[in-house]
Amino acid sequence: MSATRRHVLARTGALSAGIAFTGALTELFAGTAAAHGRGGYGPLLPDPAGLLDLPEGFRYRVLSREGDPLRSGEGPVPGRHDGMEALAGRRGRVHLVRNHENRHSSSPGVPTVDGLTYDPAARGGCTVLELDGRNNVLSERVGIAGTAVNCAGGRTPWDTWLTCEENEDKAGTNGYTRDHGFIFEVDGADPRRTGAVPLTAMGRFQHEAIAVDPATGIVYETEDAFQPPYGLFYRFLPRKPLGGTGSLRAGGELEAMRVPGVPDLSAIDETGACFQRVEWVPVPDSQARQTPVRLQDFGPRGITRAQKLEGCYWGGGSVYFVSSFARSDEGSARDHFGQVWKYEPHRRRLTLVIVFGPDTDIQLPGESPDNICLTPSGGLMVCEDGDGAQHVYGLTRRGDLYELARNRQNIGSPESPRWGEFAGACFSPDGETMYLNVYRPGTTFAITGPWSHRD
C-alpha cells in the first residue's frame, strides 16, 4: 500500500485545498446524515503505552497484532493490515473483515486453510474478527488465503466483503501457481460459504476498490495502474443482480467507461465540469489472457483513462471515484493532486466534483493522505501515509480539519524513527466504534469516545 495513494484526498496540499472548497465538499458526503456542530476534540494526549495518541475522552482497545496467534489456531496473525469493513452480525455482533496486502515474499503471510485457499504460493488474503457489542474478540480466523496484494475492496448490499487483488501476475510469476488479478467474495459470518472462488467475469487487472449500486446491483470498479497507459473505470453487469451471497459467480458483462472527447481525465481541471452521454464499451478480453485489459483495442474512438484510480463509493444515487494524483512527467495529460468524479447512472452524466492543486499555496499539516471512510454523522476520516509522524485526520462537512489519532509505534530506529501508516478506517454498524489498522506493525484498534459530538 505504501506505493499507492488511494481514495479521495491524496498528495500534498489536498486536504487543506479541500478546506477552500466547502461547497464542493458537501458533494462528497451525498447520502450521509447531517453533521453536528464543529469538529475537533482537542489536542492529542500522549499514550503511556506508546501505541496510539487520542484526544481526551477517547479510548482504544488493541484487537489484534501481527505475529500473535490467531485465536482459531490456524497460525500467526498476518501482517500488512490494509482495507477493512465492519459487517453487522447477529445479536449485535460485528464481523470485522481485514485485508492483508501481502506480496509473494511478505511475512507473516495469511495461513493456508483447506477450502479457503486459492493459490498456496500467494501470501495475501483476509482475516475475520468476530466481536461482541463491547468489542471483545470472540473469534479470529482466516477468511480467505492464497490471494495476492489484497488492497481495498467494498461491501455488498447483502453484507459481504469483496476483496480486490491489486496485482495481475500470471501463473509462473513469482512462484504463483494460478493467475491473479481478481475479486473474491468473503462472508464474514461464514467464510466457508464463499470459499476462495475468483469472480473472473469481473475482470483480471490491478483492482483497487468497488462500489455496488443498491438499486440495480451494478458493480463499479477502479483500476490502480502503476505505469502508463493508465487504468480504466469499469462497470460489471451481473447476470444475477442483487442475488445475494455467491450470486456474482453467475458471471456477467464487464464494460469500461468512455467519455467522448476525453482520453485522459487528468486533462480536466475545472470543478463542476460535466459530460453528458457517457458511453460504456465492452471489454474485449476481461481475463487478459494475452494483453492487459487497459492495453486492449477498444475501437477507433479509444477509451478514457486516468492515473491512480483508487477510491470508489456509493452515495445519493451516484457512484463517486477518485484519481488520487496525476503527473505529466509520468505520462498524464496534466498535473493534479487529486480528483473526485461523480457518475449518475440514470443520467449517464459524469461530473468533476472537486480537483486539488497543484496551483495552491495552502499546505497540509501532514502528508500523503490515503484511506478514507465516511463517518455516520457526515464527515470524513482520513488516514495518513507518508514520512514522519502518521495521523488520522477528521474533516467535517464545514471543511474543518482536526487530528483524531497519532501512531506512536516506531518501525525505524531511535536514531532514525519511522512510524507505520494508518489504513482500514471504518465504523461499527451502530456508529459507536471506529475500527482502524496500522499497516506496520500490523495492529487493529477499536476506538470509542464521544462520537455524538463529532463533525
Q: Which helices and strands appear, and what pairs or packs with what?
A:
Layout: H1 14-19, H2 22-28, E1 44-45, E2 52-55, E3 59-65, E4 81-88, E5 94-100, E6 124-131, E7 137-147, E8 150-155, E9 161-165, E10 183-186, H3 191-194, E11 207-212, E12 219-223, E13 233-238, E14 252-258, E15 274-275, E16 279-282, E17 309-315, E18 318-323, E19 339-344, E20 349-355, E21 369-374, E22 380-384, E23 391-395, E24 401-407, E25 422-427, E26 433-438, E27 443-448
Antiparallel strand pairs: 1-2, 2-24, 3-27, 4-5, 5-6, 6-7, 8-9, 9-10, 11-12, 12-13, 13-14, 14-16, 15-20, 17-18, 18-19, 19-20, 21-22, 22-23, 23-24, 25-26, 26-27
Protein described:
- The chain is mostly beta strands.
- The chain has one domain: Neuraminidase (6 Propeller), CATH 2.120.10.
- Helix content is 4%, strand content 35%.
- It has helices at residues 14-19, 22-28, 191-194; strands spanning 44-45, 52-55, 59-65, 81-88, 94-100, 124-131, 137-147, 150-155, 161-165, 183-186, 207-212, 219-223, 233-238, 252-258, 274-275, 279-282, 309-315, 318-323, 339-344, 349-355, 369-374, 380-384, 391-395, 401-407, 422-427, 433-438, 443-448.
- A six-stranded antiparallel sheet has the order 1-2-24-23-22-21.
- The longest helix is centred in the N-terminal third of the chain and has 7 residues, at 22-28.
- Mean pLDDT is 87; it is low at 1-23, 31-38 and 360-368.
